[in-house]
Amino acid sequence: TNQWFLPAVRGDIPPGCAAHGFVCDGTRILVFGGMVEYGRYSNDLYELQASRWLWKKVKPQAPSNGSPPCPRLGHSFSLYGNKCYLFGGLANESEDSNNNVPRYLNDFYELELQHGSGVVGWSIPVTKGILPSPRESHTAIVYCRKDVGSPKMYIFGGMCGSRLNDLWELDIETMTWSRPETRGTVPLPRSLHTANVIGNKMYVFGGWVPQSAGGEISAPDGEWKCTGSFSYLNLDTTEWIGLISDCQEDKSNLLPGPRAGHCAVAVGTRLYIWSGRDGYRKAWNNQVCCKDLWYLDTERPLAPSQVQLIRATTNSFQLKWDEVPTVEGYLLQLHADSPVPPVAGIPGTGVPETSVLSSQGGCSLHQSPQSLPSIPYQEMKVDHPSQTNNLIPNNVIEGKEKVAAPENKVAQETMKNHTDATGFKESNAPSLLPVCTSSAQTSANVGELHDLDKQSVNPDASVSSTVSSTQTMVTQQAVKTESSSTNGAVVKDETSLTTFNSKSEAAETAYVMPSTRVNIGQTNDSQSSRAPQRPLAPVKARDRRWYDVGIFKNNSAVVSQFYLLPEESLNINSKTEGADVPDYRLLKKQDLFPGTVYRFRVAAINGCGVGPFSKISEFKTCIPGFPGAPSTVKITKSVDCIHLSWEPPASPSGNILEYSAYLAIRSTQLQENPSQLVFMRIYCGLKTSCIVTAAQLSNAHVDYTSRPAIVFRISAKNERGYGPATQVRWLQGKLTVTHS
């Protein structure tokens, strides 16, 4: 949500401090040392359990071979495994905090942590090699290559009378210090900068650097300034690469301004930079604190999960896919198996439409090097259900033969509302963007039940208002309780109204990724003046029928139309790498047809561009005249069974003759093709409830598509036959599956 909030903490709340050490270990945070009130230096250690917002002052055991760390500030505090590594800092030789006698430190400590909470104690490792020189306000990171090698800690820069730009390496396994040889242009000497590891790169940003143009190291009383320069060190090749130089002009304010004493944190492949001081002079009273938040996307996002079906109607789909961390949107495309006629030409006029990417609070993200308005889409609405309703439709008939029923792999996840508008840029270089935040606090809706002994889930409670209640739909829901797993009896599919298949992209054709930029820029609820341009890469003949559905802010969408390309853009030879697509607002749109198979794929977008597409999913729109899916499914747990109940479909399309309930069971077919579930019928009758026995549950298949769940399907039958099924994923807590 990009919204700040102030948690109500309790416990041993530490005093405010500056220049402290800080590490994050799962959901706990450890803070050591720093300058506290009245200029006093500290060597206290505090632990915050962020899941409970509980502070605790911890007292580690003293090292067996020396004294514990003295009070200090400007030290480094790095986490690797279950140990924190403390190096250097600045101590005060005077016992009077008003009479500061600075002493630079280069001592090295190891702090062993207990699992989950608490610490064991300090130790002073015996190291080999030459210790780095004493310093404070340096940085230290830990990196371990995935293929070979032991973890290594890298110390860069700092202050010891004058700023430093030396690089030191500590092999943590052998405890050996060394000075690695580097290539490339070494960043200027600096202190109060930040260093973060993403992949195999250490990104260094900001800090105090020499004022002189030549960049030579100044004397202790020389002039210094804040910098906005930005570099990274390839930790595998030890080569420095400059991204933003110290003298680079930024008249449009598209880059973070010069600063020191800021903080930076890596979340996935994204680097966030917050605050700092932007002083250019030594005089302390001329420094101004920054209040801006920026992020850097260092690479394109990963491919999302396959598109999953939440609801299907005769002419629309409600879809979702798993979120990809730190992305700005998703490009959804479909492929129609039935021929879609090309458009002879682009219409001369277009009706302005509301953009799906709207900003809140008037904040918009600005991107480098330029911002373009967003793509507007009509009726490409994003749904944010607090309880995710996922579906799998199936037509089933009586029978005892075990067969694989088409499976729609879906799971309920909490949907996060990303409320900021943004810009996208595609390039090989990382993209640095500012983040707009709001001070208002919001609470997330968690769409699952944690205690289902007496509770129920209503799969229709949060249906998007864009879907009519009279339409035939297919639903899936997820419920959770802590219990043993389950099983049932099997049926054969006759006619699937909506089917789901997993197809690897590699099994289709080699899809060529766009190579020029995709820009989605500043936008409010107002209409956009022009659309961003996304390139059409050269494609094979089979690829020509992939059509854009839209670019969506969140990981769900209601699809009833897609955009048709002009006839000339369907010619393989007419579009080359980097060519522009027409204005989306001027393109004709095609409605979805009943009883038609459509294939979907989705790609995530961040500041570096469009990532790879997901595997392909295939769904079929419903056929008119069949009953809708049952709704308001409830699961009540008893000692030796569970009680399953539901309500009739909102659109029966005639008289309901019977209901059938099915349970996904274990089978050898499932081992060969995990995406193709095998179902056993456990109930058939007019009642809208049934009991699932412990014997049936003992044979259940546990689906690990996302979270462990037992899968049920319930469908209704009218004069024309069975309609789509409601699929229920019964989420399992501490899973204890009985195999008999």
From TrEMBL:
GO biological process, one term: chromatin remodeling
Domain Fibronectin type-III: 531-624
Bias (Polar residues): 478-488
Compartment(s) where it occurs, according to its Swiss-Prot or TrEMBL record: Nucleus
InterPro entries hit by this protein: FN3_dom, FN3_sf, HCF1/2, Ig-like_fold, Kelch-typ_b-propeller, Kelch_HCF
GO molecular function: transcription coactivator activity
Pfam families in the record: Kelch_HCF
Record key words, sorted: Kelch repeat, Nucleus, Phosphoprotein, Repeat
PROSITE patterns, per database record: FN3
Region annotation Disordered: where it falls in the sequence: 455-488
GO cellular component: histone methyltransferase complex
Main location: nucleus
UniProt biased composition (Low complexity): 462-477
Source organism, top-level taxon: Eukaryota
PANTHER family for this protein: HOST CELL FACTOR, HOST CELL FACTOR 2
Protein's name in the database: HCFC2 factor
Organism: Chloropsis cyanopogon
Name of the coding gene: Hcfc2
